[in-house]
Write a structure and sequence with these properties.
This is DNA 3'-5' helicase II. This protein has 667 residues and is an alpha/beta fold. The chain contains 27 helices and 19 strands.
């Protein structure tokens, strides 16, 4: 059955029902139109529009009237935000429970591809899937080669400034895993043959990198012509969230399974085309949004009109009638959105000046969402003097760029414990925190017993629990360690770490490898070394510890500024945001001055070369609820008549300007 046969037309009464169920405020016409739509539609929703809440409300209405026990709604995204929101908003309701179980399916695009396409194809070839994990797969590929073969291939690649870890399977013919890809070595060379042997052996053993599942997904679709049609019958309605972040390999699978123009399936794509900040190697074949099927939600509950007006010129995809800020100012005097101008050669005082502005204009209760300083470039590499300030480290030398990577691996178990504790305090569930601790435990066990053949596969926490379920005493100790690290009121002390927690962790590592009584390698003790938590945050922020948090203290009052890349903060809400000048081919904010000043030339269709920078600025500018600041160099503002003209234009555009003078040299 199609969606129209499974669900009766959605009425205003259904919208009122879900508003009451979820405690929603009055909804405007575009939001009501989205909830009532029964057609394939592309929803372009601005930052702070309540997109995830609207998605959950839409799903609740559909599930309430769903007639089939065998066909369901398929909800796909890049994270589990939709599932978490359903659990949070509807977990205690009957309709929420319906959404979370068969026949409906909620997962990531990657998870869907693995379950319905990649895994069945591997089973059809008699291959047992062992792991979809980059690190485990690189190790499996290394095991396929002799020491000499591996060393030779690695050296050859490094001469071309490449890494063999960047290689991916391009063909489901595992005897020719590279397909037609040119890797810089001819097929007859020893290097090429070694790499084919490595990739082929690991693939046949069931090991794959994260993004290789889409090759396997296409393999099943090529092999079995009816798979796509069967999945469309199984899921006559599919909702894809954060569509602007969908990569070509993901979109290719989705387009084959759920074609946007198939009349028998309803494809609801939701996202913000102005937040497409993650690089795509090739454009999508079916671009988002489709102008003929677009529904626009351009009003934000997050910020006021002052911030909306400043951010609107940076909407690379123009917003009809402009971005609208719905939040009413919470203080009688408007909070100044400020450009901090610093001497070209000294950016080190910017964070202090930003902190002073926050303390002056934002009372403590207005800082609950956090105070942030973000940059387009946060990793300091290949620095040249004319690029200053290039990255966040130039504003605060203690900044560590590696902690914000999704692939971040703590240097020590103690560091991992401190970061996991941060995750547990900040996120709605402890899933990320527990998974990080499980990763650290798995890494400890490998370092402690390097000769053990045991390998943990898949998600670390699930793998650890699977092994320990048959060993109740060790399982209880594992749970105790999680409790002692994550769920105690105060930070773990050095005494508890050394005397209580570390011995338990070593015992658990031995149990995981079934090597009780075997000597522990020295590397494990180094990995378990104690190190204190980073600087403490203010009491209003759970009293925890954060890496990359700059503390400013002024008398009895103080403020924490969390530093991060703009990419890392996408989708998040701040109380106050400072966007720092950084260098990416050129100075980031300086390049965007025409849009900041509101020049007429900037109102024309922006060039493609400005797309990435404009979207990064748009994402950064739409994070804060209360205060937005920028930091630019004095030379960007200009001197003399040019500087005065630019100051006037910026003030007209809604900015206050704070200029820092150069410090006198110390005699």
């Amino acid at each position: 059955m199609t969606l129209n046969q499974l669900v009766a037309p959605i009425t205003d009464a259904d919208v009122d029902w879900v508003m009451d169920l979820m405690g929603l405020e009055a909804l405007d016409e575009p939001r009501r139109d989205f909830l009532k739509s029964m057609d394939t539609v592309d929803v372009a929703a601005c930052p702070g529009s309540g997109k995830t809440t609207l998605v959950v409300a839409k799903l609740a209405i559909l599930a309430r009237h769903w007639k089939s026990r065998m066909q369901g709604i398929c909800v796909l995204s890049h994270t589990n935000a939709a599932r978490e929101e359903i659990e949070k908003r509807l977990g205690g309701t009957e309709v929420g429970q319906r959404l979370l179980r068969f026949p409906h399916y909620i997962d990531t695009i990657h998870g869907f591809t693995v379950r319905f396409l990649a895994s069945p194809w591997l089973r059809s070839k008699g291959i047992a899937l062992q792991a979809i994990d980059d690190e485990a797969t690189h190790k499996a590929r290394r095991r396929e080669l002799t020491y000499r073969e591996h060393l030779g291939a690695q050296a050859a690649f490094e001469k071309k400034f490449k890494s063999i870890h960047s290689l991916r399977i391009r063909s489901a013919d595992f005897d020719h895993p590279l397909g037609a890809e040119d890797i810089g070595f001819a097929p007859h060379t020893a290097t090429y043959k070694s790499l084919v042997k490595s990739l082929s052996g690991a693939a046949k053993a069931g090991y794959f990198c994260f993004d290789e599942v889409f090759v396997l997904g296409h393999a099943l679709l090529d092999q079995e012509a009816g798979v796509g049609a069967a999945l469309r019958v199984r899921f006559p309605c599919v909702l894809i969230d954060e569509m602007q972040d969908t990569q070509p390999d993901q979109a290719g699978v989705l387009q084959r399974v759920f074609p946007h123009d198939d009349p028998d399936v309803r494809v609801i794509r939701v996202g913000d085309p102005n937040q497409e900040i993650f690089e795509k190697k090739t454009p999508l074949q079916d671009p988002f949004p489709d102008p003929g099927r677009q529904l626009e939600i351009a009003s934000s509950f997050r910020f006021d009109q002052a911030i909306a007006s400043i951010a609107n010129p940076f909407a690379y995809v123009p917003i009809t009638n402009g971005l609208v800020g719905l939040r009413a100012p919470c203080t009688p005097d408007s909070v100044p959105n400020t450009i901090i101008v610093f001497p070209d050669e000294d950016a080190t005082r910017v964070l202090d000046e930003f902190a002073k502005l926050v303390l002056k204009h934002l009372p403590t209760e207005s800082r609950k969402a956090g105070v942030f300083a973000v940059g387009a470039v946060h990793r300091l590499e290949n620095f040249k003097e004319n690029q200053y300030p290039k990255a966040l480290e130039h504003y605060w030398p203690s900044y560590r760029s590696d902690t914000t990577k999704t692939s971040f691996k703590p240097r020590t178990f103690a560091e991992g414990a401190h970061i996991a504790r941060r995750y547990a305090m900040r996120e709605p569930t402890a899933a990320s925190a527990v998974e990080l601790l499980a990763y650290c435990l798995a890494n400890l066990s490998v370092l402690a017993f390097p000769n053990s053949p045991v390998q943990l596969r898949g998600r670390h926490h699930a793998s650890v629990e699977e092994i320990l379920t048959t060993k109740p005493e060790a399982f209880a100790q594992y749970r105790e360690c999680i409790q002692q690290i994550l769920f105690v009121p105060s930070e773990v002390t050095e005494h508890d770490w050394i005397k209580v927690i570390s011995p338990k962790l070593l015992l658990l590592a031995a149990v995981l490898h079934d090597v009780e009584g075997v000597a522990v390698d020295l590397q494990a003790y180094l990995y378990l070394a104690w190190e204190p938590a980073p600087a403490a945050t203010e009491a209003g922020e759970s009293g925890g510890s954060l890496i990359n948090t700059y503390r400013f203290q002024e008398g009895a009052d103080g403020v924490d500024i969390r530093m991060s890349s703009i990419h890392s903060e996408k989708g998040k809400t701040h109380s106050a945001t400072l966007i720092l000048e950084t260098f990416r081919k050129t100075h980031f904010i300086q390049k965007l001055m025409p849009w900041l000043e509101g020049q007429k030339a900037a109102a024309k269709r922006p060039p493609d070369s400005a797309k990435k920078d404009m979207m990064l600025m748009y994402v950064g500018m739409t994070r804060p609820t209360h205060m937005l600041c920028l930091a630019i160099r004095q030379s960007t503002l200009g001197e003399g008549a040019t500087g005065e003209k630019r100051r006037a234009a910026l003030k007209t555009a809604g900015w206050s300007i704070l200029e820092l003078t150069a410090l006198a040299p110390v005699p």
